[in-house]
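Fold this sequence, please.
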Amino acid sequence: MDRTLLNPAYQAPAPNLLAEVCEKAATMENVIDLSIGDPDLPTPAAITEAAFKAVAAGDTHYTAAMGKPALRQAIADFYTTRFARPTTADQVMVTVGTEHALFLALQAVIAPGDEAIILEPCFSPYFDQVKLAGGVAVDVPADPARGFAFDLAAVEAAITAKTKVLIVNSPNNPTGYAMTAEEAEGLAKLAQEHDFLIFSDEIYADYLEPGVEFATPATYAPTHTVVFSGFSKNMAMTGWRIGYLTGPKWLVDAAGYVNDAVTFSAPTPSQDAALYALAHYDEMKAPVVSEFQARLTYLNQALAEVPWLKVTPAKGSIYLFPDITATGLDSVAFADKLLEEAGILVVPGVAFGPAGEGFVRIAATQKQAVLEEAVARMKQLQW
């Protein structure tokens, strides 16, 4: 018996560059790690204390499979009041992180041969999750010359009779681009005209540079949009593994059916933590978001002074995605050399789809002094 017993898709899988970088980050010492999208700040102490208090009081059992009713209601109220988008608790499902939510929704919607348009560069699991659902990923590259804005005409050209879903992430990982209200409305109109769903990954919605407004297709086509988000980034709660999806009830119900075969419910202590975080949302997110906004502003300016980088200023997220083609190396070779010669770990752009080649992702997940040291090391390199 050998690996030929495996599903053919996993007998000789393509390299997962993002996973490989994560593995390096976990094992290497004395390296400036600018690769991983995990905020270095601890979860706000009040959130942790609230969860521990609930656990100590005995809240250690399963919750309802779709999530604690109180948490589902709190999320619904959040979207109703903050985004003026009326949402009910039965339109919300609590999940084990945002990636889990997307997996469930794709499994619920995609049938073999269905197509999912993916605006890329993007978080690479989008492609894998569409494939796992039996679908076909249709990538539409953004335009680096326009700051990684996507072209609505190119999106429309990619739509076919088999299109079921369009996946968009804004602010974007890895590019830092934030779509405008006009772009969000344009996507919404396409979804309504061609009757497909928009899966809007909004995990970085709170991370915006000064003067940038958050925009989502859900504002313009709520019945055609499913929103995916969570508490990992804005509350520095990556390890708590708590996310959610919200959208049409029929889709949320179907995601619940899929989840019955995956995991019963999200961790109870994490749901307690999320409840407290939502109840004190502005207070809890403020120090985390302001810290990363300052770091991103710094990197926008400082990396522009590195002669062999071409920087498109990020409008949001916690990343920059500079052009490294002036070095004459592809993104994998560049990342390897930067690690060997400067001790800096970044993610090759090709890990985020073919449109990412020629770029690298730099995460602002280190303290200001560390970021300054990284920039100083970069300026000393010759290519």
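The first helix runs from residue 17 to 27. The longest strand covers residues 163-169.
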